[in-house]
Every structure is written in C-alpha cells, then in structure tokens.
Write a structure and sequence with these properties.
Elements: H1 18-34, H2 60-83, H3 87-90, E1 103-106, E2 112-115, H4 126-149, E3 154-160, H5 170-184, H6 187-193, E4 195-206, E5 212-222, H7 230-250, E6 261-265, H8 268-274, H9 276-279, H10 297-306, H11 311-323, E7 330-332, H12 334-345, H13 349-357, E8 360-363, H14 366-372, H15 376-385, H16 388-402, H17 410-430
Helix pairs in contact: 1-17, 2-15, 4-12, 5-7, 5-11, 10-11, 16-17
Length: 434
C-alpha cells in the first residue's frame, strides 16, 4: 500500500512549488502565534489549498513514547558509527542498494523502518539488531505455533559460565561457551533428555574491568506431549546442570547451580517476556535492565557519549566488538526449523495478504533521498509522529516520482528540506515533546 497524505497538499504539480509551500508555512506559523486556541483543524489564510491536519492517531501518548525510543536508538546508532572498528557498521544505511529505491515502511504497530538501503547486518549494530529482533520474533511465533499444534511443552533455560578473568581473552571465552553448549546439547544428549528442538540466543553484559558475562537464553521444546510437573522440571534441570558443570570444568571454567535456571513457559505469549532481552525492540535501547556495574552495547555507547574524556568506555566497547566478531547471536536446531515449517503450512494466502496490507510504504526517488539522507533519522522520526512533516514528505515523494531528474534544482530541494524541518519542529511542539 502506497503512502498518501489525506487532505495534504495540492495534487497539481504544475502549480505546486517550494516557494508557495514556504509562504503557506509562514502564514500557518503566523496564525498559530496569533491564536491562543488549539491548532486542531486550523487552516492558514492564504495557503493555496494546503491543509495541515492533525496526526491521524488519537493515541498521542504511545506515539510520543515510540518517538522517544526511536530517537534514542538513532542517537546511539550515530555514536556507534563514529566509534566502531567495523567499516560496514560505519557505512550502515548510508547508501541505497543498487537498482532499488530507499523506502520508508510504516508497520501497524507504529514501528517505522527503512528498506532499500545497504545495512551492515553486524551482530553488534544497534540499528540492525532491531530488524533482527523483529525477524526473530516472527520465527519464534511460528515455532511456538508448531509446538502448540503438536501439544509439546516449552521450557526456558538460562546457562552461562563464571566470567572472572574473561576479559583477558573474550574470543576464547566465547568459543569455550559454545564448545560446552555443543557437548551438553548434542543430538544424542537431547534425545536422552527428551528435548526435540531448541532455540539459542546469545546475550551478554560487560564490566569496566573488561570481564564479560556471556550467557545463553534458550527455548527447549519437548519431543513428546507429556506434561511436566514442577518436580519434573527440577529433575530435568538437575540433569542438564550436571552435564553443563562437568563440561564447563573440562573447559577450565566454573559455573553455579543458582546462576543458571530452567522454567516452564506457560503460554506462547510468555515467550516475549522471557526472551525480552534478545527479541524486544525497545529493550535493545533500554538501559534500566542492567546493574550499575554491568553494561550492554547501548550502555557503553551512551557512556562514550556522556563521558568523552573517559577513554576506558571506548576501550571496553572496542574490546567487545573485536572479541565477539563473528559470534552467532541466534541459532535454531533442525527440530525448531521443522516446527516453523509445520506452522507455515497452516498460514493461508489470505493471512499473508492481510499482514502485508498492514504496511504503508513510501518509495523515495534518488534525488530526493540524497537531499534528505543527511537527516534520515529525523525523516523516520517524523513518520513516527504521523503529523504535518510526514504529510508534506509523502506529497514530495509522490511528486518526485513523476518529475524528470533534469527538472530538479538544488535550490528547490534545499527549500523543501527547510520546510520539512520546520514542520517537524511544529509536530514536536504540538505533541509537547519540546
């Protein structure tokens, strides 16, 4: 579905120009200053049929909250691109993919994404983490549907190794963790434990001492339809921990019984809560979940920006980025993929079409993209607010699809950019963000 601005700006490209729109904006801004009443439905006196309407959503609180979270995410992404050791992260979202157009995608839940640009897909990139989180959430939903269809119980496991001295060689610490996992949950062991499928997610926090707390969040799906009691879950955990502690000892690491955990997942809805660290979009930029002495990647980026004179945080961030380069953050067993395929068989074409209709897509002509690319984060935030700046850009995007490239002038593009920024500022004020 293509984006359209309801009651937005003139459809006649012949008479529509930046200068006229700029005058309209000036008249509108002046009328706001002159009136003490609410601007809802207010029209400028001389605006050549331009109407600036209120955002279509009435849930202002959720829009403001989503805007704040996305603004923090984009801020951290800019910091990361500045300090990263990875060239691909530094170039993330800078350039369009060849033979495609940048496209703003508005999802039904309010999330606004950008497609058609080259993403780094680095496991540490805070922007690409969000896209992977949504993809993972979709796969998890299908796997849970498959498990429910077969009446298979699902358990949630957290395991890790003690991290003292781990900062001396983060790469070795990660390899040891993966080696222990491979031994504990090999095919034969899973069959003996009654586990038919698993999903594994890597999570970590790091201390200023460079010690890193690497641990795994896992979903375990039983291989039959038996129902476990609390005592059964405890007994299964004791068997898993006995193997885990033994192979950890062989790898030269210690682990603790209380530091690991196994819980029942009572419903598919609970999966999101249990795995929020790995798959919740907003958790990726939340700095309230960690202690005062343990930090995630977003924590470190925020500290680098807040304390630029303290080079310690930059050293810790780069040590983690280099030490965990190539680390696999998410893995699915063959059994999990089979459950996912089973769930996909039940999804009809009508449901697929309905999900695609929930997206509003705005394609951006390359000349317009290059004019706005330096403020791409502001552009996405404007779409999050669903206000006047969004309506203006939607009309611009539609108009630029039809104009020949030789008819475009840099002065007009700059004036369109100035108008857009003024409208975004107005959206911020109307939503009481500034």
């Amino acid at each position: 579905m293509q984006c359209s601005a309801d009651q937005g700006f003139p459809q006649d490209n012949q008479s529509y120009n930046a200068h006229g729109a700029f005058n309209a904006l000036e008249a509108y801004s002046g009328s706001l200053k002159a009136c003490s009443v609410s601007p809802v439905g207010l029209k400028p006196g001389n605006c050549n049929n331009i109407e600036l309407t209120q955002p279509t959503s009435t849930d202002t609180g959720s829009i403001v909250s989503l805007h704040a979270n996305q603004r923090e995410l984009y801020r951290l992404h800019k910091i990361q691109k500045r300090v990263t050791t990875s060239a691909s992260v530094a170039r993330c979202c800078n350039h369009p993919i060849p033979l495609s157009k940048p496209t703003i995608v508005e999802h039904s839940g309010g999330y606004v994404g950008l497609e058609g640009v080259a993403r780094c897909r680095n496991q540490h990139c805070v922007y690409c983490q969000r896209a992977r989180a949504q993809e993972a959430a979709g796969r998890l939903t299908k796997i849970m549907r498959g498990a429910e269809k077969l009446s298979r119980e699902v358990l949630f496991l957290t395991v890790g190794l003690n991290n003292r001295g781990s900062g001396q060689d983060i790469k070795k610490y990660y390899k040891d963790l993966m080696r222990v996992w491979a031994r504990v949950f090999d095919t034969r062991a899973c069959k003996a434990l009654g586990i038919g499928a698993w999903i594994r997610s890597l999570d970590f926090t790091v201390k200023a001492s460079f010690d890193i707390n690497l641990h795994l969040h896992c979903l375990l799906v039983l291989d039959d339809d038996r129902v476990l009691s609390s005592d059964d879950v405890k007994a299964l955990y004791q068997r898993i921990y006995a193997r885990w502690s033994e192979y950890a000892r062989r790898a030269g690491h210690a682990t603790s019984y209380s530091g690991n955990d196994l819980q029942r997942v009572n419903s598919s809805g609970a999966v999101g809560r249990y795995l929020s660290k790995a798959f919740n979009v907003l958790e990726l930029v939340s700095r309230n979940k960690t202690s005062l002495t343990s930090y995630t990647i977003p924590d470190l980026l925020a500290l680098i920006d807040a304390e630029p004179e303290n080079g310690r945080w930059l050293q810790v961030y780069r040590a983690v980025e280099i030490g965990l380069k190539g680390a696999r953050s998410l893995a699915f067993s063959k059994g999990a993929k089979a459950l996912e395929a089973l769930a996909e068989e039940d999804v009809s074409g009508d449901e697929d079409n309905a999900s695609s209709d929930d997206q509003v897509r705005t394609s951006i002509a390359l000349p317009l993209w290059y004019a706005f690319s330096r403020i791409k984060y502001v552009l996405l935030l404007a779409f999050t607010l669903k206000g006047r700046a969004r309506a203006y850009f939607c009309e611009l995007a539609a108009m630029f699809q039809e104009l020949p490239a030789e008819d475009l002038e840099d002065e007009d593009l700059q004036e369109h950019l100035d108008i857009f920024l003024r409208l975004y500022d107005l959206d911020l004020r109307l939503n009481k963000i500034i």
